[in-house]
Amino acid sequence: MLRHQIATANLSCQLEKAHAAHVKGALAQAEKLYKEILKLHPDSFEVLHRLGILSHQRGRLTEALRYLVAALRRNAGSVEVLSDCGLVQHMLGRIEDALVSYRAALTIEPENPDLLNRYGVVLLNLGQPQEALKSLDRALARNPAHAEALGNRGNVLLKLNHPDQAIINYDAARRIEGDSARLLTNRAHALRRLDRPEEALVDLRAAVALDPRHAEAQFELGMVQLTLGNFDEGWTAYERRWATGAFVPHRRDFRSPLWTGEQPVNGRIILLHGEQGLGDTIQFVRYAAHVVRKGATVVLEVQPELVALMVETGCAARVIARGEKLAAFDLHCPLMSLPRAFKTNLTSIPAAVPYIKVPKIKAENWAMRLPTGKILVGFAWAGRRMHYNDANRSIALKRLTPLFDIADIQFVSLQRDPSPEERTLLRSRRNVLDVSNDLQDFTDTAALMSQLDFVVSVDTAIAHLAGALAKKIIVLLPFAADFRWLRARSDSPWYPTARLSRQPRFGDWESVIDQVCGQLAAAAES
Hints:
52% of the residues lie in helices and 9% in strands. It contains 24 helices and ten strands. β5, α20 and β6 form a beta-alpha-beta unit. α11 (181-193) packs parallel to α13 (215-227). The N and C termini lie far apart (103 Å).
């Protein structure tokens, strides 16, 4: 009995010493002490938990999770450890596992506001914003002053396409905890979605001043500067994307150095690689020809769907699909870093079109299939659903039906994989041709597009392809469109044949469709 009491007292004393070092921030010393205790007491729940916390603090997430799981084996009902476990799993990208951990904790403490807050963030990341909102509302019902939950609620409302309400939540959080780089950056993003970039600029400069290392603020600042046409500052700040949480998993750690435009490339092999969406690759591949003119041999790595199309640029010695084995190269550059490398500004955008060719045989095949005697107008109404701003940029097919009432126009759907309901609507209109089953890749779409008189599309890859082919394109843009379309212009310096039809107010597609109807009706009458 006495021996047990002495051992317990010694353990308590050792834990107190280790914890004191931990609290002071002497993490290496605390870790050493914890591990010494663990050798003598390998089943100590408390030591395993604290080592999990400490490993998390030191950025060793896999190790942290191992300690936390071991602690749970000793006490499966610890809400604190379940919550910490969920947090680490979330940071490791194991989102479903995090969900399980938080649910287990919530069965024990269903109204714990901290748990409900973290659970809401996981639900948002899993694409369940409505459920996330419910969880955060429960957290705030228990603790209305929970600043983190307020900020996260703002993020959910932004996802649900309510940027004005998101700002209200961000401001409420700021009143509680003061300004932070994170809150100001998120608020700036909401302001940008409301076409208030000058105000966003103020918030982002304040965010950078508070935390110069906050990459998200720098990246958002770059997009605002580009929106305003300030390309010199914009492209530089845009490079900070690779340090943001969204881009870090996609960063390429090549041994060969990044080409910044400063190093000579004559006689060298340079890998140019697509990095974001299909439309981004189509837009910025135009720079490949300019790299070739500097004497480089270009290897182009793009999304598998675009390989055949990118061969038609005729400027790359080799075009490969992302994921294929790479041969040796001397330098590399992501496609969206090329504007900075070439010091692109509004007056020096390489806008010569077309810069993508169409396979002759495929074009001829489409020419034989399409009806004659009418103006041919291709159209697309939706982009990738997982795009962060898809709720803004895509529209429902039924909104386009006023176009189909214009006489003497044959419409051709360019949309891949329409839903059964959309197919039914398309086939119900006598002047609409649905050829989605015959669009196997982007060379098919490009060949079809080459035979059309006009293209009407939302801001998606179809719009970029039409611009790259020098087709007359009307781009349907949401209020506060993406930075590449700039502001308050009906033309695009990137695509000379494009005309931009912008929402005059947030969510107002009716005005856009009315404008496009007028343009197409005038074309049909001329």
